[in-house]
Design brief:
Length: 195
């Protein structure tokens, strides 16, 4: 082999070796870049999931806050409506009591309450009061029940009040007190939980 052939052979071999080394370096570099790209994609995917999770939690909190505010508003509306209905109901009850006062049953009611008060007093001194609007019944009740009745200076819609001074006892069977007690204890049940 001549020198030129040797040189050509050496040149060819050097080129092939350089090309092989270049391909190996390119492949290594490409593998490193691919790995960096995959790591970068995984980091970005994780960041996106974290952002989605954080945004989801934020939206849940905002939705819960809005829901709570709406529930509070609904409760206030329901409470106001309940109060309105309760007031209307007890206004009707007062009207019914006024109508009841015009019946014979009302006089019987007064007799019964007077007799209960006398029985409770067990002979102690007692002052019995009628509502001023019941003045028309005073004489009849005094005769039937054998008691002395006073007209109250303060109206109480109907019924009786009795005072036993020795025992510091007030027997309050006035319609005002009865209505007030019922109104205070009244709970308006209704709605979805009571259907």
């Amino acid at each position: 082999m001549t020198t030129e052939e040797k040189l050509a052979n050496f040149y060819q071999h050097s080129i092939e070796s350089a090309n092989a080394e270049a391909w190996r370096t390119i492949n290594e570099h490409q593998a490193a870049l691919d790995q960096l790209f995959e790591e970068h994609k995984e980091i970005k995917r994780q960041q996106a999931q974290d952002e989605i999770g954080a945004e989801t939690e934020k939206l849940k909190r905002e939705a819960n806050k809005a829901l709570s505010a709406e529930q509070l508003s609904i409760k206030r509306t329901v409470s106001a409506k309940n109060l309105e209905l309760k007031n209307r109901l007890f206004a009707e009850v007062r009207e019914k009591m006024i109508q009841f006062k015009q019946t014979e049953a009302y006089k019987d009611y007064l007799k019964t309450k007077i007799q209960e008060a006398v029985s409770f007093a067990s002979g102690d001194t007692m002052r019995l009061y009628l509502d001023p609007s019941d003045e028309a019944y005073q004489k009849e009740l005094e005769e039937v029940c054998s008691v002395s009745l006073l007209l109250s200076k303060m109206p109480f819609t109907g019924g009786i009040r009795a005072v036993i001074p020795e025992k510091n006892i007030l027997i309050d069977n006035s319609f005002d007190s009865l209505i007030r007690e019922e109104q205070d204890a009244f709970i308006f049940d209704g709605g979805m939980t009571h259907e």
